[in-house]
Amino acid sequence: MVRVAFYAPMKAPDSPVPSGDREMARNLMAAIGADGHRVDLVSRLRIYDKTGDLDLQNRLYREAATEATRLSAELPADTGLWVTYHNYYKAPDLLGPTVCRARGIPYVQLESTRAMSRLSGPWAGFAKAAHDACNAAQVIFYHTANDLITLERERFGDQSLIELPPFLPRSELPRPSRCAGPMLTVGMMRYGDKLESFRILADTLALLKGDWTLNIAGDGPARPEVEALMSSFGTRVRFLGLLSRDDLETIYSDAALLVWPGVNEAYGMTYLEAQSAGVPAVAQDRPGVRDVLAPADNPAPEYGAAALAERVDRLLSDPELRRSEGQKARDYVAGRHLMPNATRTFWSGVSSLVGEMS
């Protein structure tokens, strides 16, 4: 059994604020500990600067120095590995490299990105810290082909770069969908990229030719704007609010298809959830998103809402095509995106560091 120190500088896995980042951190902790290894959340110190605020960055450096000193002294003696999730220029790992040097512990990262273009400008210091933290990692697990581009270009020494596909925190697939109910959208209602996806979605709905209904699961500060975008569709669009995992699974079990453009999504857990239930996913063919979608005829963003509408119309008009694509998606998730695969991949990748296989 290996005792693992786990840290997520951007958001602690037990944060009360829901997000895909929090969800993936929780999933990773579960996967790492699935075979009986102990995973300790060693710090909840949030190192995150959204706007490029130098005063905030300086305060966080000071807080991190104090926390690193504490952890170097107090980390349990049998800790055999440190894992940091999502080190990047707005949320660099200011703890792991320092503590691991002090304690002689192997250091690995999950879903890290390098942003050399940020080494100047308001995040320059944080970008350099994130870059240095990447250099300190003996192994970096990446989730998408897009992340690999810069990780490989800036690879440090004989550092190992290992693909660990995004995954669902389950070992078996849920019951398959009937693919006969309303369409489904699942997305947090935030300003920026999320709201842009809702704008594209509204434009897509306006172009659909057949009869349709859509359920939207999710909530957030931009809900009034989302409701305004959907107001012209009347009762064809229904807002479900923020749903529990069990409630979402019930909705997936009936959904005809999932539609979500995916503007600047890192990958999008909702695509995996839908496909695991045999619900075909309609999205734009974007970096990150394409890493979690079963092969299908998803249009490039430059073709706009018209191409999305064409694909939705085709699926809505052909129940057999929906079921066929849904089954292909289900098989795809089963083979690549469930937790046992993540557990095997992780422990195989770090076995040489901890001196044993899981």
Automatic annotation (TrEMBL):
<dbReference type="InterPro" id="IPR050194">
    <property type="entry name" value="Glycosyltransferase_grp1"/>
</dbReference>
<keyword id="KW-0328">Glycosyltransferase</keyword>
<feature type="domain" description="Glycosyl transferase family 1">
    <location>
        <begin position="196"/>
        <end position="330"/>
    </location>
</feature>
<dbReference type="InterPro" id="IPR001296">
    <property type="entry name" value="Glyco_trans_1"/>
</dbReference>
<protein>
    <submittedName>
        <fullName>Alpha-D-kanosaminyltransferase</fullName>
        <ecNumber>2.4.1.301</ecNumber>
    </submittedName>
</protein>
<dbReference type="GO" id="GO:0016757">
    <property type="term" value="F:glycosyltransferase activity"/>
</dbReference>
<dbReference type="Pfam" id="PF00534">
    <property type="entry name" value="Glycos_transf_1"/>
</dbReference>
<keyword id="KW-0808">Transferase</keyword>
